[in-house]
Design goal:
Order of helices and strands: EEEH
Number of helices: 1
Helix content: 10-25%
Oligomer: single chain
Number of strands: 3
Strand order of the largest sheet: 1-2-3
Structural class: alpha+beta
Number of domains: 1
Largest sheet: 3 strands, antiparallel
Length: about 60
Amino acid sequence: RKLGLNAAGKTGTTNNSVDTWFIGYTRAMTCAVWVGSDQGKAIFRNASGSNSALPLWIELVQNL
């Protein structure tokens, strides 16, 4: 997806997809998004930072 601005970041996923995250930055801000379960169970099958937390980060940045 194109944000229309320069951005960079890093995804992360814990074992068994219990937690995923994305931390990204632009010239104007830095923001982290965490998606996870406090029950110790996978949030969904094959969850990863790129298919759970990153889309939320993109949506947030586009609406700032």
